[in-house]
Amino acid sequence: MPEKYPTSVGIEIFGDRTVLLSNIGFSHIDEHASLTVVINQQIADAFRTWFQLMWDVSEENETTLSV
């Protein structure tokens, strides 16, 4: 993540599951870390859609900035 957008929360999506992890880093897990698993196809699909939107917008911005 860019330094402008710090977060200690991760999101993993697979199948119909969305996993939210808090108080984690690339090289450590805090003693107060928590994990939440949501089993719901609609929620997993919504997160995928939001990810795709952010990905598409970032590609558009990258193209615009490099012109």
Secondary-structure map with pairings?
Elements: E1 9-14, E2 17-24, E3 29-39, H1 41-66
Antiparallel strand pairs: 1-2, 2-3
Walk me through what this model shows.
The protein has one domain (9-66). It has one helix spanning 41-66, and strands spanning 9-14, 17-24, 29-39. A hairpin with a 4-residue loop joins strand 2 (17-24) and strand 3. The chain has 67 residues and is of the alpha+beta class. It contains 1 helix and 3 strands, in the order βββα. A 3-stranded antiparallel β-sheet has the order 1-2-3.
Give the domain tally.
1
Based on secondary structure, the structural category is: alpha+beta
Number of helix segments? 1
Return Rg in Å: 15 Å
N-to-C SSE string, H for helix and E for strand: EEEH
Strand content: 35-45%
Question: What is the overall pLDDT average?
Answer: 86
Structure in a nutshell:
39% of the residues lie in helices and 37% in strands. By secondary structure, it is an alpha+beta fold.
Task: Tag the structure with descriptive keywords.
67 residues; alpha+beta; 1 helix; 3 strands
